Amino acid sequence: MTADIEIRNVNKHFGAMSVLEDLSLSIKAREFIVFLGPSGCGKSTLLRMIAGLETVDSGEIAINRERIDHLPPGKRGIAMVFQSYALYPHMTVRDNMAFGLENIGMSREVIDARINEAARILEMPHLLERKPGQLSGGQRQRVAIGRAIVKEPKAFLFDEPLSNLDAALRTRTRLELAQLHQRLQSTMIFVTHDQVEAMTLADRIVVMNNRRIEQIGSPMEIYERPATKFVAGFVGAPAMNFIDATLDRSSGNATARFSDGISVRTAISSDLLADDKYSFGIRSEDVRIVPPGQGNADGVVDVLERLGERTLIYIRLGDGQQIVGSDVGNSRVAVGHKVGLAFDGQKSHLFSAAGRAWHAREA
Ligand SMILES: Nc1ncnc2c1ncn2[C@@H]1O[C@H](COP(=O)(O)OP(=O)(O)O)[C@@H](O)[C@H]1O
Ligand SMILES: [Mg+2]
User: Fold this and answer.
1) Which string of b and e fits 304-333 if b means at least 16 CB within 10 Å?
2) Ligand 1 contact via 119 beta carbon (within 6 Å)
């Protein structure tokens, strides 16, 4: 079972506060969609409106081209998995999974068949007779997912389901969710504020901020061609470097000049750019560490972060700005060293004050 989901011009207020403004979104059948954005931007509210746990002020929500925004949650054919697993502690795993189905009068045979199939998919047949208290956090999360699977929903909605798990388990459960999606081929919507979860799981990411959708795109589209400065700063760790720049547009490709006499030739055509003031953006992996005097700028090393396969180097420029660059794993650079920075203008971005973005990759 699967479904496409259409959200058209949806608005939502809580009291006088507007939470979502004229939001539209088309989700294709079998897609893994991630709503990504900072805390409080309206992700859970949007998910709960799809599930029927919140009303819609205005606008429409349709599943497989049928309007469902007036239907109660149980009639929408959707299953939601929460961050808190909400299992009944006195019931076995099997009974927890059966509970919702018994309530709608399904036969014992069908219920057992569905539970056994879900347990097989989630590799937990041996846990069915246990109670939640006898399970680890990760196993409880799997039961919560199993309870959704047995409903055979048209779509699965997940609200930050991994946040309560420790780092190792979070990574493993993330992988299991990706495999579950491949097996079930169901539409899945997953809410998170964690850009790594979004990048690793999504077919398409919906980046939300401040009541609106900032961008919808595949993980690499979002990463390589962020539509706004907000998206560029929110997706990717460490965050993209932003430097206030004045453009020299006298030749074919624009050259960005920074406050202390640094200049970088971008691969962005001057013809596309109307102003002189932009925010120049570049990711840490596109700022290489070179000997002093051999790059676009020199600076002094503030901090090192060793990640194993590479080292992040935080460098203070002459005007006090900090830039993060990237060096090899066993970098010999040390705090206090003077180093050169080589900016790769072919991978640079420009952001206008009005929020438009240009990318060297597309130029
Ligand atoms: N039931 C509610 N009553 C009043 N305000 C709410 C309610 N639910 C959420 N909000 C507010 O709506 C905004 C969006 O919340 P939410 O959708 O939970 O954000 P997110 O999931 O992105 O962190 C927040 O400012 C939050 O405080
Ligand atoms: Mg939330």
Assistant:
1) eeeeeebbbbbbebeeebebbbbbeeebeb
2) no
Ligand 2 centroid to Cα of residue 43, in Å, is 6
Shortest-distance Cα residue to atom 8 of ligand 1: 45
In this prediction, residue 363 carries a pLDDT of: 46
155 lines ligand 1 (CB under 6 A): no
Q: Is there an atom of ligand 1 within 6 Å of 39 CB? A: yes
Is 80 exceeded by the pLDDT of residue 83? no
Homologous superfamily in CATH for domain 238-359: Nucleic acid-binding proteins (2.40.50.140)
The answer to whether residues 268 and 306 touch, using CB atoms and an 8 Å cutoff, is no
- Model confidence, pTM: 0.93
- Domains 5-232 and 238-359 belong to one CATH topology: no
Give the ligand with the smallest distance to the CA of 13. 1
Q: What CATH architecture is 5-232? A: 3-Layer(aba) Sandwich (3.40)
Ligand 1 atom closest to Cα of 45? 17
pLDDT digits (tens, 9 = 90+) for 87-139: 899 999 999 999 989 888 889 999 999 999 999 988 899 999 999 999 988 88
Helix (H), strand (E) at residue 32:
strand 32-36
pLDDT tens profile 184-239: 999 999 999 999 999 999 999 999 999 999 999 999 999 999 999 999 999 999 99
Residue extents of the structural domains in the chain: 5-232, 238-359
Closest of 76, 71, 55 to residue 12, by C-alpha? 55
For atom 7 of ligand 1, the residue with the nearest CA is: 14
Closest atom of ligand 1 to 38 CA is 22
